[in-house]
Amino acid sequence: MSAPANDSQDYVGFDTITQQMERKFLKRGFNFNVILVGESGMGKSTLVNSIFSSHLVDSQGRRTAQEVIRKTTEISPVTQTLEENGVRVRLTIIDTPGFGDQCNNEGCWVPVIKYIKDQHAAYLERELKPQRDRVINDTRVHACLYFLNPGSRGLRPLDVEVLKRLTEVTNVIPVIAKSDSMTVEERTVFKRRIKEELVFHRIAVYPYPSEEDGEEDRLLNSSIRDLVPFAVVGSEEIIDVNGTPVRGRRHGWGVINIFDETHSDFVHLRNFMLRTHLSDLIEVTSQRHYEQFRTSQLRQIKELRAQQAAAAASGGIMASMPQQAPPQVPAIHQSMA
Ligand SMILES: Nc1nc2c(ncn2[C@@H]2O[C@H](COP(=O)(O)OP(=O)(O)OP(=O)(O)O)[C@@H](O)[C@H]2O)c(=O)[nH]1
Ligand SMILES: [Mg+2]
C-alpha cells in the first residue's frame, strides 16, 4: 500500500479505502457475462468478437478461405480471461442458436430464459449454503445483446414476446444487426419506430432511470437512450485502406470502418458497455434482477414451510383423520420460463 498523502498526526487515513478496495479488486478480478440473442446469421458472434477485439466465439465469417462455415446450434457459454492494465476479467459469452428460424417459433425463448434463471438459482443456492464460499463464482447474466433484423419494419410479434420476457430477467441492450444494409434515413426511421414500440409495449431496456443518478449520470444515460437501438456493424477483418489497417467490411462501393462513428454506433456501444456502464450492468443485475428472483424464491419457500407447519399442526388435532403427505419444500429453482 502506498504511504498516505498526509502524514500529520491528525490524518486518520480512511480516505485510502478506495486504494484498498482497488487492490482487492485487482487481485480478485471479476466476472462479466453477456448473452447474445437474435436470428441466425445476424452477426452475433462477429459483433461480440469485434467488441472485445478477440476471437471469443465462432462466427460464420471466415477469416481465411480454408475455414469452414460454422453455425451456432446450442446454448454455448465460452469463458476467457482477458487482462488490461493489470485488471482481469473472466468474460463469459453465452452464444445462443438462431432465434425465430423455425416455422413455429412458439416458446423458442424458453431455453434462453431458463439459462438466465438457472444462473440466478445457482447463485442463490451458493449464497444460502451454511458454509458459503468466500467469493461466489458469479455466472449471472449481466447483459443481453438483442439483435433486431434490419430487414424488418419494426418490432415483430416475436421480438415483443421475447423482449418482454428477457427484460424481466436481465439488462437488455437492443442493437440493429448489420446496419450497413440500411441507408442513413432508413436507420433513423427504424430507430424511431423501435423506440416508440418499446414504449408502447412497456418494454424497459437498459439503462433504467434511477433516483440515485446525479446530473452527470442523467445526461449520460439520456444520450445513450437516444442511441438505442445501437446501429452496429461488426467485422473481424483488417482491411488495408491506403496503407492504413482498418477493421471493417469491404463493399463494392468502399470500406466500412467499424470504428468510424459516422458509419455505425459500434464505438458508442463498446464505450457504453465497457467504459461507462460495466460496473453498473453488474450492480443492476444483482440489485434488480437477481433480487427479484431471490425474493420470489424465498417467498415461495416460506409459504411452503408455513403450509407444512399448518399441516403438521392440524395433524395433531385431527390425528384420527386420514393423513395427507405434507408439501415438500422444493430445491431452489423452478425454471419458470
Ligand atoms: N453486412 C454485414 N455482415 C455481417 C456483419 N456482421 C457479420 N456479418 C456477416 O454475417 C455472417 C454471419 O455472421 P455470424 O457472426 O456468424 O452470425 P451469427 O448471428 O453468430 O450466426 P449463428 O451463430 O448461426 O446464429 C458472416 O458472413 C459475417 O461475416 C455486419 O455488421 N454487416
Ligand atoms: Mg454465432
Task: Return the average pLDDT rounded to an integer.
Answer: 85
Tally of DSSP β-strands = 9
Structural domain count:
1
CATH architecture: 3-Layer(aba) Sandwich
Taking the sheet with the most strands, its summary is: 6 strands, mixed
Uncertain segments: 61-70
Q: Strand fraction band?
A: 15-25%
**Inertia-based shape:** globular
How are helices and strands ordered from N to C? HEHEEHEHEHHEEEEHH
Strand order of the largest sheet: 2-3-1-4-5-6
CATH top level assignment:
Alpha Beta
CATH topology name, in short, is Rossmann fold
Rg calculated over all Cα atoms: 24 Å
Helix content, binned percent: 25-40%
What ligands are attached or bound here? Answer: guanosine-5'-triphosphate, magnesium ion
GO molecular function: GTP binding
GO biological process, one term: septin ring assembly
Domain Septin-type G: 28-300
Keywords: Cell cycle, Cell division, GTP-binding, Nucleotide-binding
